Amino acid sequence: MIIIEDAQVLRATGVERCSVVIEGDRVVAVGSVDAVNGARVIGAGCAWLGPGLVDLHVHFRDPGQTWKEDLDSGARSAAAGGYTAVVTMPNTDPPIDGGSRAVEAISRGDSIDSVHIEVAGALTKGRAGVEMADFDAMYEAGIRVFTDDGDSVPEAGLLRRIMTYLSALPGAVIAEHPEDRSMTAAGHLHEGAMSDLHGIVGIPGVGEEAIVARDIAVARDTGARLHLQHLSTAAAVELVRHARVTGAAVTAEVTPHHLAIDDGRLEHLDPNLKMYPPLRSPADRSAMIDGLRDGVIDAVATDHAPHTIVEKAVPFEQAPRGVIGLETAAAIVSVALSGDQAVFFERMSISPARIAGLARHGMLVEPGAPANLVIFDPEQRWVPRVFASKSANSPFLGEELVGKVLATIHEGVITHEEGLT
Amino acid sequence: MSGLLTLRGVTADRLGELLDAGQRHVELIRSGASAPVTLARRTVTIAFFEPSTRTRLSFEKAAMTLGATVLTLGQESSTVKGESFRDTIQTLTAMGSDALVIRHHLADAAELAARWSGIPVVNAGVGRREHPTQTLIDALTLRQHFGTLHGLRMGMVGDVRNSRVARGHLNALPTLGVELTLIGPSTLLPDANPWGARTSHSLDEELGDLDVVYLFRIQRERGAGTGLPSEPSYHLRYGMSEERLSLLKPTSMIMHAGPMNRGVEIDDAVADGERSLILSQVANGVPMRMAVLEDALGGRS
């Protein structure tokens, strides 16, 4: 039994300062609680207590590139960041694009105790963007999120056949990485003043906007559930806002780094600031924050993309795209949301769990709820220097952050704790 | 650690000092006197990771003239065997180089070389980002011809987007009082123009107001061709032909950093004519680079 005392608890009725009792894998009591012999008692010191965080978008590089990350290190990184569930992208080597690979990936994921690993499958065979992946076998294996993340489905005709097919499978979500390669492939950072100054080919915002517009049109036409990954431009947010008004089944995510920093930081071309989509303009960044606050953007997803120090210690144009995010996301997002606890858990846990169809995650803290929980102190200051991840390619490496995860509880077991009594 | 990585943010006074030092070498060479061996017992490593003729040769001559030991790393380097840029830089440094002169196709190569070597680095042209010694050479050429740069109107015509020379000019020439106008099709001009330079899409409308027409090569190797319907079409609207010379003020001059695509951005009669400063630009290459190397190595004469 675990008793968490004196927390700001996110209940069905709102935030309440009280205590929570966990027994087995369930929350059994919420409110004022008497001491129980033999229970672990945690003083939360008025920190936030809410449902464990859910990340719709991580790369654990396993199988294929386990020098960057593997399921174990990825799970430790997730727990350290307050996460109890993550959706792993299928662009492993080999990619998850058929039944036997799906079965194996799910079984390996289930062998990890500290976090729920929800395996996503590819949209096309070999992620090659040419033929439909083996949807039925993957669906039978339990996969619900389908994505070619790293690439969009290149042709609208193929996307329309895929969406038509998947719209018939209940709960199936098409998660698209919006990038028109014909406009973006040569680029390395946002096209704008900074790309001009460096003389490096830019990645224009319209490369994202064009695919978002196409995907919304095809989703509306087919009735498929579309989830747009890592939006970064004001124009894309406006397209989603409009799509909502007209009733399309579209959800969207944003990364922490697109909420926190913009391309003005690229004066010195730090490879830990290179990712896709790129850091955009200050106006784009503020549109992402507004979109997250007002709910046009449903979820924050880290796009946790580990690369080693050696891989990143190269000229900017040769550096691989991607940054890690699991261990710093909560701090970044609580600041971006100005410390609004209810909205924080909505975007970091409740909505992403709903989008991925995770019944045991993203539940308000009430008796009977699964004990997937996080304790987060929104005021503690800290500096990320070492990570549970195998990689350290964080844009926030060495920078002071405000807000720290004190404990993560997965299915009633404490998977991470720091500085607790 | 000194060196010359960029001219962005460099003050007019500092630019003036470098130009004055370059001018002293021009005059010394003209007088026939032998140069002071201010870099004796110093090792200058000229590491070029990209093809170049005039820049590499003029740096070599500049360093040798000042008495330095010169090591030249060309494209035979072990980078073709897969050695990382970082390892190459650290190897060159460990061999006892006192300064590195870097030419590379990637934008941050000189900056990284400076960080990874800890010794002075001279940017000899990186990526599309900057070619600061060419900008100093051109500024020196303009100062010699016009007496001052202040108030000069320069049109930068053509493939500005892909030009490292153009970015150096945009970073430094306005500091010296030059008014720049970028002239060319939109596909060959910068996207956001953070320098705030005037832009124009009509060469004919601008020519009468310009003191200097600086022509930029269409960089086919950087894909500039895909931003143009055709080279004859470009030449029709932006090529510096003999007929267009007649639209210039009688005192206006033509510049080009080479190599030239004759018949595309510049016609033979213009390149070889009396309005051309092109050979003066080439002649200023060695003395200006001597001044930059002395400055980088603290061996000022």
Written description of the protein model:
The complex is a heterodimer of chains A (421) and B (301). Chain A has 421 residues and is of the alpha/beta class. Chain A is built from 13 helices and 18 strands. In chain A, helix 2 (99-110) runs parallel beside helix 3, helix 4 (156-166) packs across helix 7 (206-222) and helix 7 packs parallel to helix 8. Chain A starts with a strand and ends with a strand. In chain B, the strands form 2 sheets. Chain B has a 5-stranded parallel beta sheet, sandwiched between helices. A 5-stranded parallel beta sheet of chain B has the order 8-7-6-9-10, with no helix packed on it. Chain B is globular and about 55 Å long. In chain B, 38% of the residues lie in helices and 16% in strands. Chain B has helices at residues 12-31, 54-65, 85-94, 109-117, 132-146, 164-172, 203-206, 231-238, 242-245, 268-271, 278-297; strands at 3-4, 43-48, 69-73, 99-104, 121-126, 153-158, 179-183, 198-200, 212-216, 253-256. Chain B has 301 residues and is of the alpha/beta class. Classes of the chains: A alpha/beta (421), B alpha/beta (301). The A-B interface holds A 186, 191-200, 202, 204, 268-269, 313-318 and B 8, 84-86, 104, 106-109, 111-112, 127-130, 162, 164, 167, 190-194, 223.
